[in-house]
Automatic annotation (TrEMBL), chain A:
Keyword Hydrolase attributed: yes
Name under which the protein is recorded: Superfamily II DNA RNA helicase
Segments forming domain Helicase C-terminal: 291-438
Keyword DNA-binding belongs to the record: yes
Taxonomic source organism: Levilactobacillus parabrevis ATCC 53295
Stretches of the chain forming a coiled coil according to its record: none
UniProt KW keywords: ATP-binding, DNA-binding, Helicase, Hydrolase, Nucleotide-binding
Helicase ATP-binding domain mapped to chain residues: 106-258
Pfam families assigned to the protein according to its UniProt record, in alphabetical order: DEAD (PF00270), Helicase_C (PF00271)
Superkingdom assignment: Bacteria
Length: 438, 225
């Protein structure tokens, strides 16, 4: 017995009960000489054929394999919800600036416009969306809150659950243990949107400039297709990429700005320090002298810090050298680390005095009173967005709005300079709204 | 510039002087160095019966437990986290393109074995329909093989990988010989090929069927142990 609600606004293969699901569409279709996956719209390579003659898509394999013998079934989204009058159970208060931004977003949603919220790191983006989301939910809309990062989804889900306690919700990501449930609010990774078709009236895309969404046409397409033809979307970001900025300038995308953090202090600026030939030194297992000095000072003052390095493979050597220099009491963490969340929590609980990490901690994590140091900011992995995000880790709490951000480079690169320019510009706008220096 | 079949990143394959002097098209590796390192080859001392990596060259504890039912098996890689991740994507998610990743090492290993007939372990009909390929023959790249074994039609197809050791050991004989098998394997040295050696139940059952068909000797080779 199949549950028909699982097929509302989705595109899924079915094994049983296909007679109640309509005809279905072939999952891999021949178009001219080539084959195209109907789930992710990517072209198959001409070697992706199985010995039994079927063609299969490698691009969306992680969602379960579809072949040219699979059929995908859809039931058009019926919006079968019982909306409540006031679904918002969140009792926090927005600052006047946040209030203004929230009001604007709600107006744009009511006018049916797709839009962007450009709010600095630590502005409280999530809460700003709540009033508009409450309005949408009360109208009976189906809404998705999607992010390219699993961490962001995992962090968001309980917050949204608490803020909209009476609204049915489900969380979707790659290794999630719970089964899918048809619900009004869906918090998911952008990959999961590939399973939907014309399902959502409103899609909120959090951290729209983050990897891998920014560089992946597949995922951008997934968003467009998961949205109803009458639907709209809202992009949330602190660091929009060139393309989005151009769309704002050309007025094809409405933007709401929030250049001030929720506590009203300005962003800490990147302080660039020259570290001559840091890469060569690192290869010999050594670190720049000024960096060591700075970290030792932090340790003496009891100041916790994050040290960002370009690559995972540099981590063991850096940890060894830090140990030799007497900088102990911290650990390294990288993307594939099984104890990642545990280590991050340990730093938050002050059980560790520092973390050495790569760009995986560039967004979505908050530590009160933390100093930030970047080694090798001129490396290609640190894009402008990454640098601004990393700098945004500092001074996030109202108690400790200040925070040092130091960036060691061999040469000034365009990315570093652009990051500084972006922070300066945001701070200038913030000052006009009464932002204070910490 | 080559694209790694597993992680889909581009990489520069290393070129040795030998490759250049051979004056042939350069070999194109399927895996980048990082992905290659996810596999741990079994080198040096190993159990003479099952091929498991160990410090000594005496029969291991598990092989002693088999008693008289002996089998000589070689394995190429250890069944560790990397190999599990590979099998998960190749076998269970059905990413047939990943077969290329282990074709070269298997080719080299087969060249060192002495045998007359190569017999891959078959998959049952339902697996063939859902998976669309036999994971063992996928690794063969031009080598001749004889599919003389078949899975019995009445064999209950709960996969071995979903069972405990005790459950595996009491599995009834799943294989039968093909009608034309006798001509092919009589008085021949047969090499069985399988993906993973876990308890050795499957391979021993296959070997006993091959012996019934009149083979002179049966050894086996698996990708992982």
């Amino acid at each position: 017995m199949i549950n028909l609600s699982e097929y509302f606004g989705r595109r899924l293969p079915a094994t049983t009960g296909t007679d109640r699901l309509g005809t279905g569409k072939l999952a891999v279709k021949r178009v001219g000489q080539r084959y195209q996956c109907q789930r992710c719209q990517q072209w198959l390579a001409n070697s992706d054929q199985l010995p039994n003659g079927a063609w299969y898509c490698r691009q969306c394999l992680q969602l379960g394999r579809v072949t040219s013998q699979t059929k995908l079934y859809t039931i058009p989204e019926p919006n079968r919800f019982s909306p409540s009058e006031s679904p918002l159970t969140w009792t926090g208060k927005l600052s006047p600036d946040q209030q203004r931004a929230a009001e604007k977003i709600r107006q744009h949603v009511q006018q049916g416009q797709s839009q962007l919220l450009w709010a600095v790191t630590g502005a409280g983006k999530t809460e700003i969306v709540y009033p508009a989301l409450a309005w949408a939910v009360a109208r009976g809309w189906r809404v998705a809150w999607a992010s390219p990062r699993v961490d962001v989804c995992l962090e968001l889900a309980p917050r949204i659950q608490a803020a909209f306690a009476a609204v049915s919700q489900c969380v979707l990501y790659g290794e999630q243990p719970a089964p899918y449930r048809y619900s009004q609010l869906t918090v998911c990774t952008t990959h999961q949107l590939l399973r939907f078709e014309h399902a959502f009236d409103w899609i909120i895309v959090d951290e729209v400039d983050a990897f891998p969404l920014a560089t992946s046409p597949l995922l951008q397409l997934a968003i467009t297709r998961a949205e109803k033809p009458t639907g709209q979307h809202l992009y949330l970001t602190a660091t929009p990429g060139e393309k989005l900025q151009r769309q704002i300038r050309q007025r094809t995308l409405v933007a709401t700005y929030l250049p001030l953090r929720y506590h009203g202090y300005l962003l800490p600026q990147l302080r660039v320090k020259l570290a001559w030939r840091w890469r060569e030194y690192l290869r010999k297992g050594r670190l720049p002298r000024p960096l060591i000095q700075q970290l030792l000072t932090y340790l003496q003052k009891g100041q916790r810090f994050l040290l960002f390095v370009p690559h995972v493979r540099d981590l063991p050597e850096i940890m060894a050298e830090l140990g030799r220099q007497g900088i102990r009491g911290g650990v390294s963490v990288h993307a594939a680390d099984p104890e990642r969340t545990c280590k991050v929590q340990a730093l938050r609980d002050q059980r560790l005095s520092f973390l050495v990490t790569t760009t995986i901690l560039e967004r979505g994590v908050t530590f009160p009173n933390i100093a930030v140091v970047i080694l090798g900011g001129d490396d290609a992995v640190f894009s402008t967005a990454a640098l601004v995000q990393i700098a945004g880790r500092a001074g996030r709490s109202a108690k400790f709005p200040g925070g040092e951000v130091t960036c060691y480079v061999q040469t000034q690169t365009r990315a570093v300079r652009r990051a500084q320019v972006m922070i300066t510009r945001l701070n200038r706008q913030g000052k006009q709204r009464g932002g204070r220096r910490p | 510039m080559t694209i790694c079949v597993w992680c889909a990143r581009t990489f520069e394959p290393p070129v040795t002087l030998q490759d250049l002097l051979r004056w042939r098209p350069l070999p194109v590796p399927a895996l980048c160095l990082n992905c290659q390192e996810r596999f741990t080859p079994i080198t040096g001392a190993h159990c003479p019966a099952c091929g498991r990596q160990q410090a000594t060259t005496v029969r291991c504890h598990d092989c002693e437990r088999w008693g008289a039912e002996t089998l000589t098996n070689r394995a190429l890689f250890q069944y560790d986290a990397g190999m599990k991740a590979y099998m998960q994507q190749y076998k269970f998610q059905g990413d047939y393109a990943l077969r290329k990743a282990l074709q070269t090492p298997l080719y080299q290993a087969l060249a060192q074995q002495s045998y007359d007939v190569l017999v891959p372990i078959p998959v049952d009909q339902r697996t063939w329909l859902t998976r669309g390929f036999n994971q063992v023959t996928g690794w063969l790249h031009g080598q001749p093989f004889q599919q003389v074994l078949r899975v019995k039609a009445d064999h209950k197809s709960q996969p071995q990988s979903a069972k405990t050791r005790a459950e595996r050991l009491v599995t009834p004989q799943p294989f039968m010989l093909d009608a034309a098998a006798a001509k092919i394997i009589v008085n021949q040295r047969v090499l069985l090929l399988d993906d993973v050696y876990t308890t050795g139940r499957t391979l021993r059952q296959a070997a006993s069927q091959i012996y019934l068909g009149g083979a002179k000797a049966v050894t086996s080779l698996t990708l992982a142990r």
